[in-house]
Amino acid sequence: MAGASRQVILQDLVEEHFGRRPYGWPEWEIVLLVARLVRKGEISLVMDGAILSPDKIFDAVISPSKWRRIAVIKRQTPPPEQLQAARNLAKDVFGQIAPDGESPLDAFLRENLGGWRSNLAQYKTLTDTGNYPGGREIADALGVIARLLAEKESFGLIGQFLERKDDLLDLSDSVHELENFYSTQRPTWEKLRQAYNRFQLNRTWLVKDTTAAAALQRMKDILGAAAPYGMIKDAEALIQAVESVNMALVTDHRNRVLVEINALIAKVEAELETAKAAAELRNRCLYPLQSLKRQIDTQTSIAHINQAQQIAVDAADEAFDKIAAAAKEKETPATIKIAHPVYLKKRRIVQAARLAPTGFIATQADIDDYLNRLRQELEAAINNNERVEIR
Q1: For the segment 81-100, what is each residue's pLDDT rounded down to a tens digit?
Q2: Sign, CA torsion 169/171/175/178
Q3: Which residues of 2-24 are buried (b: 16+ CB within 10 A; e: fewer)?
């Protein structure tokens, strides 16, 4: 070819120039020679305005009908000073010494950019869940890498690599932070995130403690930061600060509720003894309360622990109903006599708070009115031969 800027159509080269005198070469030998020159990096083939990559050349030239659409151009090569500049930049970006020579440098850049892309794609699957940082940085990095690797020729890749120097230096810092986070800091991040979510169960009580409230806010700030990498070192201390307060609160609430449940179990057991209940009835009455007690021993939600207290009251009420039903004299044939039938007084539950006036008791008249109502309720129960449980 006469010059670097001149385009030669492959069909003209095969059929007109080398296919006729004085050469008279066979068509496919000419195509093979062209392919060898492409392989050696001396020329490039352009089809429909785009340079053909090596893996696309065979499909393009195997069909003679496409030869008119293929142009043969002299391949552009970067000057030595550009290659050296790219090597220096590659050392700053990747932290490695790049090889000398256009082709080795091209392979080095593609390998390292491809490695970044592979790692970032893995990180992206985590950031897409919304539970991990770096989503914006990863998206930006993948965009830059995609544009660089879209350059099929080494001349274009090296040129673009130098043109995007500032972007690549920033990108290098981001990638190294991300690689450090996902390879070493991720377990600590997971622990922090899980602990923060767990503490939300008892947040209502924790925020009343100034130490726990401050630690929870700091944990929230770290988990919500765009770049939390330098703050993750504080995670363990923050978790411990909240954990100590949380465990003290859980233990206190658990102990108070267990006292109430134990008292209910004792009342039910006393009723069972009075009723001379059979083993099967004892089991049906006591099992729900004992099961609830075991659940509280491992429960860490204060709300659930407190809720268990009311569930225990309901379970005790159901137990008393079962005992009362079992103690009723059953109908028996006339020939059968019950020597000592068990008699249990009917139980009446008086909700003392419901008898109080709306609002506050503020005067002597309010006191007298409330006590009269309570007395009337109690006397009605006693006159009806009932026993009273005040709640």
Answers
A1: 999 999 999 999 999 999 99
A2: positive
A3: eeeeeebebbebbbeebbeeeee
What does the alpha-carbon distance between residue 287 and residue 279 come to, in Å, rounded to a whole number?
Answer: 12
Instruction: Give whole-number Cα distances, 195 to 148, 154, 181, 218, 249, in Å.
Output: 41, 50, 18, 13, 16
Per-residue pLDDT tens for 219-262? 999 999 999 999 999 999 999 999 999 999 999 999 999 999 99
Taking Cα atoms as reference points, which of 116, 118, 95, 98 lies closest to residue 107?
Answer: 98
Paired tokens of 344 = 């249990």
Rounded-to-integer distance, Cα 79 and Cα 65, Å: 36
SS percent in the chain: helix, strand, coil, step 5: 70, 5, 25
Mean pLDDT of 289-305: 96
**Cis before residue 228, ω within 30 degrees of 0?**
no
What global pTM score does this model have?
0.69
Residues in the chain: 391
Q: Which pLDDT band holds residue 5 (cuts at 50, 70, 90)?
A: very low
Rounded to whole angstroms, the Cα distance separating 45 from 51 reads 6
Going by DSSP bridges, is the β-strand pair 70-74/8-9 parallel, antiparallel, or unpaired?
antiparallel
Backbone angles phi, psi at 347, to 5 degrees: -100, 135
DSSP state of 200: G
